[in-house]
Specification:
The complex is a heterodimer of chains A (287) and B (280). Chain A has 287 residues and is mostly helical. In chain A, 69% of the residues lie in helices and 0% in strands. Chain A has two domains: 9-229, MetI-like fold (Orthogonal Bundle); 248-284, no CATH class. Chain A has twelve helices and no strands. Chain B has a single domain (2-279), classed as Rossmann fold (3-Layer(aba) Sandwich), CATH 3.40.50.300. The chains are: A mainly alpha (287), B alpha/beta (280). Chains A and B meet through α7, α8, α11 and α12 of A and α2, β6, α3, α5 and α6 of B. Chain B: Residues 2-239 form the ABC transporter domain. Chain B: It is found in: Cell membrane.
Chain lengths: 287, 280
């Protein structure tokens, strides 16, 4: 049988590829964080419908979601140097494009792309928070900032998490296109290696395994986080109330002190006590 | 004394509230009744500015707020001196019962955590739910959730407790426990403004009943006046609609008519006693 497929090589070359894993992770992490922050800001603009910025964000999201990531990477790679030259021309500065590491072009393109997707996920999550929850918080006297921090963010976070994870998984795979910006990530390294051995099929199998395992780890992490952040499904045990019930417990349910009652004008006392009487122990002993 | 004056509110040119004013003495329980869509809830929600009325004033302990033009700080101040119990409970779903009650104390009133916890546990005990304090809202029945919501509202020591149809979203067998809890809070001297469709409950708990229709106060008086001797046709029509569907408003599960009369007699006696005591 001819040596068409070297199954062993698929696994033995993985360590070599993993030397480039940091590049892939760096791209993912940087683009993910920038994309999240930017996406969050854009989501806020869209929820608040801030004039002008809102219209800009609509176009921004539409364009970035509507063009292929590889095109965006190319635009970033060729566009930023041109932009820099114009800046130099206008400001009389002398920035050298060769000092900009190529990974920056890739990070920027991936981050902008991510921000568009994440903005939509976050916007949907914010609007999905039940308005009753906000009203409850407001009626307690919380300031708008407190409502945002204590109610909207935690609840929207839980709702947004699966969508954000999805987007992040897309990003990891998107980093495999970074070679167009002259970044040697895992995929690019694999292509170079396969170029000399002509074992392309084995190489892509190895890459597939690595990406899949990374994604698997992320999926598990996402599921764990989701589980941690959401309300437990199981009801906890009833709290043991060991504390001795204060002396009022011995009293039969009764009216508040006479003096208190008399202060209440035209209080429907009998009606209230008829109802309240059955409630138990020191229910009335509110101070 | 709490004074709510001249609240008006239009939605899309339709006048929902047309200059409604209500004065509430300390410790009074005032009930708003009336057909659906007459602005009862809007009135309640205008008081704590969950709704923004077109005109209106609120006076609490001598301080007057212009509800239509309240500043941010005034809005927070108003909300901190009133508390609301919602039809749909609206407990924060990612917090336990105890955390829900503590929330306002720690975040809004800046009570130290240990103290807030103690207070919250006491409030939960008062509504009979101390054992349930570690449960999340989704683990509690509707009635229990509403009792936690009442505990949460009372923990803020509100000058005025607003109850917006507190039992309307409950299963029938859960209505009583919530009504009792509210009655306990009333007995403890909390000042309340209640919107309810449970006429029996209104009759037993309210010190004054206000009949609202089409955004105006049509009639108001003591429960016995309103239910026993309605003056206007509109109120009579409204009350009779409860009878038409087989629910006698004077007898809807809480107090029978005879019990009511007996109670009335006892009440008058008590009043005489009180009077005598005062005279001493």
């Amino acid at each position: 049988m001819p040596d068409l497929f070297n199954g062993k090589l698929v696994f033995t070359q993985i360590p070599q590829l993993l030397r480039y894993l940091p590049v892939t992770l760096e791209l993912t992490l940087a683009a993910g964080i920038i994309g999240l922050v930017l996406g969050f800001i854009i989501a806020l603009i869209r929820v608040k419908r801030t004039p002008v910025l809102y219209q800009i964000s609509t176009v921004y999201i539409s364009v970035l979601r509507g063009t292929p990531i590889i095109v965006q990477l190319y635009i970033s790679y060729f566009g930023i140097p041109i932009f820099l030259k114009y800046l130099n021309y206008w400001n009389g500065t002398d920035w050298d494009i060769n000092n900009v590491p190529p990974v920056l072009f890739a990070i920027l393109a991936l981050a902008f792309n991510q921000s568009a997707f994440m903005a939509e996920v976050i916007r949907a999550a914010i609007t999905a928070v039940d308005s009753g929850q906000l009203e409850a918080a407001r009626s307690l006297g919380m300031s708008p900032a407190q409502v945002r921090r204590r109610v909207i963010l935690p609840q929207a976070g839980v709702i947004a998490l699966p969508g954000l994870m999805n987007s992040l998984i897309g990003l990891i795979k998107g980093t495999s296109l970074a070679f167009v910006c002259a970044v040697v990530d895992m995929t690019a390294a694999g292509q170079i290696m396969a170029g000399s051995s002509y074992r392309y099929f084995e190489m892509y199998c190895s890459l597939a395994i690595i990406y899949w395992v990374i994604t698997l780890v992320l999926e598990r992490a996402g599921a764990w986080l989701e589980h941690r952040l959401s309300v437990p499904e199981q009801a906890p045990a009833l709290r043991q109330v060991t504390e001795a019930v204060p002396e009022q417990a011995e009293r039969t349910p009764s009216l508040p002190e006479r003096g208190t009652v008399r202060r209440l004008p035209a209080l429907n006392r009998q009606g209230i006590t008829a109802l309240a009487g059955t409630v138990g122990k020191e229910a009335i002993a509110r101070d | 004394m709490i004074s709510i004056r001249n609240i008006s509110k239009s939605f899309n040119g339709h006048k929902v509230l047309d200059g409604v004013s209500v004065d509430i003495e300390d410790g009074e329980v005032v009930a708003l009744i009336g057909p659906s869509g007459t602005g009862k809830s809007t009135f309640l929600r205008s008081i704590n500015l969950l709704e923004h009325p077109d005109t209106g004033e609120l006076e609490i302990d001598g301080k007057t707020y212009d509800l239509a033009h309240a500043s941010k700080d005034e809005t927070l101040e108003i909300r901190r001196s009133t508390a609301m119990v919602f039809q749909q409970f609206n407990l924060l779903r990612n917090r336990t019962a105890l955390q829900n009650v503590m929330e306002g104390l720690t975040v809004v009133k800046h009570v130290p955590k240990a103290q807030a916890r103690e207070r919250a546990l006491r409030e939960l005990r008062n509504v009979g739910l101390e054992e349930w304090s570690d449960h999340y809202p989704q683990h509690l029945s509707g009635g229990q959730q509403q009792r936690v919501a009442i505990a949460r509202a009372l923990s803020m020591d509100p000058r005025l407790l607003l109850l917006d149809e507190p039992t309307s979203a409950l299963d029938p067998e859960r209505v009583n426990e919530v009504q009792r809890t509210i009655a306990v809070a009333a007995a403890a001297g909390n000042t309340m403004l209640l919107v309810s469709h449970e006429m029996g409950f209104v009759r037993s708990i309210a010190s004054r009943v206000i009949f609202l229709e089409d955004g105006r106060i049509v009639e108001q008086g003591s429960p016995e006046e309103i239910f026993g001797n309605p003056h206007t046709d509109r109120l009579r029509d409204f009350l009779s609609s409860f009878e038409r569907y087989g629910v006698d408003h004077s007898d809807s599960g809480i107090l029978t008519n005879t019990a009511w009369q007996a109670q009335e007699a006892r009440r008058k006696e008590h009043e005489r006693e009180d009077f005598a005591l005062e005279a001493v």
